[in-house]
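User: Hey, quick favor. My workstation is busy. Could you predict this chain's structure for me?
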Amino acid sequence: MTARPTRRTAMALVLAGPLALRLSPAAATPDEMRAAVDAFTGGRPVNPGRVTLDVPLLVENGNAVPLKVSVESPMTEDDYVKEVAIFNERNPLPDVIRLHFTPRSGRAAAETRIRLSGSQNVHAIARMSDGSLWSAVADVIVTAPACAES
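Assistant: No problem, here it is.
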């Protein structure tokens, strides 16, 4: 005799089916990240240097990856960091965070945690008060990805 599913089991499968289909890995691409970077920079050239991006190079779990960013600047009225943007290549939204600074900030540095959907490059770009752009890149290997689409 074959066991038949109960009405409750059948309803649970019907209701859970669409949810299971929606939980797929993030599908952003490096091209989408490049478009976000271009929107931030206005297509102007970005110089390597002055930015320090401290992210673990090997991450076991992508749900809470520690990130520290700092920018070399005297932080005076004439020479300071206006904004730092963090971008990544594979998350659903490549524009992760924007940090705003003023000369009164004292130093351009911040710490946070981000989610990473798999191994990818993380980019930090600083916009200075003179309009110049400076950057750093970290290649992060993630063994257990985060960021499933909802």
